[in-house]
């Protein structure tokens, strides 16, 4: 199992590494969708938030605006080239960047108020272990936002495939997965211009 997950991580790093330099130019119109999702996450001034799988850091300025100067914004990604692009775009000025596997975060228990994950869930090597690790670092009643700037149908069409019931982002499967890893699904939106699942960290 460990070997398989290592292979998965290497595949994720390779996939995003070769696309990092042109990532932002491929999806230039996603900014408003990111802003809307961050707003719906309902962060408060002074909160500590992690952008898990932050990529080039497109959400980081919005997260910084939401938590204000007294808040803390962290961006973690598995792919060095993605973090390099975040720095090149100046987004490191709004957050501390970590080269880290979301399934093994260098963070203490319950240190976060919220996690924002754009396009994260389908790229987690072992989604149950990844979500369990995010639950570890979030305080009880803290938030998890799983976001994508387009919905499942639009994304499937873009990728030339069909939606299937076993899609990890489908509401029934996601609700079950979240419940098994310490989360409670609060709301679920899947429309062409937004995918956003908001969950709350269960009290222990």
Ordered list of secondary-structure elements with their pairings:
Layout: H1 2-17, H2 23-26, H3 31-40, E1 48-52, H4 60-67, E2 72-77, H5 80-88, E3 96-99, E4 112-118, H6 127-137, E5 138-148, H7 152-158, H8 171-180, E6 183-191, E7 194-201
Parallel strand pairs: 1-2, 1-4, 2-3, 4-5
Antiparallel strand pairs: 5-7, 6-7
Structural key phrases:
204 residues; seven-stranded mixed β-sheet; 25% strand; alpha/beta
Can you summarize this structure?
The chain is α/β, with parallel strands linked by helices and 204 residues long.
Give a structural overview.
The chain is an alpha/beta fold. The chain is built from 8 helices and 7 strands; from the N terminus they run H-H-H-E-H-E-H-E-E-H-E-H-H-E-E. The protein has a 7-stranded mixed β-sheet with strand order 3-2-1-4-5-7-6, with helices on both faces. Strand 6 and strand 7 form a beta hairpin. The longest helix is centred in the N-terminal third of the chain and has 16 residues. It is globular, with a radius of gyration of 16 Å.
Based on DSSP secondary structure assignment, what is the total number of beta strands? 7
Which parts are unreliable, with pLDDT below 50 for 5 consecutive residues or more?
Answer: none
Mean pLDDT across the residues is 89
Radius of gyration: 16 Å
Helix content: 25-40%
Listing every helix as H and every strand as E from the N terminus to the C terminus, the arrangement reads HHHEHEHEEHEHHEE
- Strand-residue proportion: 15-25%
Basic shape: globular
The secondary structure category is: alpha/beta
């Amino acid at each position: 199992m460990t070997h398989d997950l290592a292979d998965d991580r290497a595949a994720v790093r390779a996939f995003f590494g070769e696309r990092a330099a042109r990532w932002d130019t491929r999806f230039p119109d996603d900014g408003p969708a990111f802003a809307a999702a961050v707003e719906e996450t309902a962060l408060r001034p002074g909160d500590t938030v992690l952008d898990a799988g932050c990529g080039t850091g497109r959400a980081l300025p919005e997260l910084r605006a939401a938590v204000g100067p007294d808040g803390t914004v962290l961006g973690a990604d598995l792919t060095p080239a993605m973090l390099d692009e975040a720095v090149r775009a100046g987004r490191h000025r709004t957050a501390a960047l970590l080269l880290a596997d979301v399934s093994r975060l260098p963070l203490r228990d319950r240190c976060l108020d919220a996690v924002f994950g754009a396009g994260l869930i389908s790229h987690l090597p072992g989604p149950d272990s990844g979500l369990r690790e995010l639950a570890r670092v979030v305080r009880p009643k803290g938030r998890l936002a799983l976001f994508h700037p387009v919905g499942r149908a639009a994304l499937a069409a873009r990728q030339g495939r069909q939606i299937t019931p076993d899609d990890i982002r489908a509401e029934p499967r996601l609700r079950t997965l979240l419940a098994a890893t310490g989360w409670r699904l609060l709301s679920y939106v899947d429309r062409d211009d937004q995918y956003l699942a908001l969950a709350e960290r269960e009290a222990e």
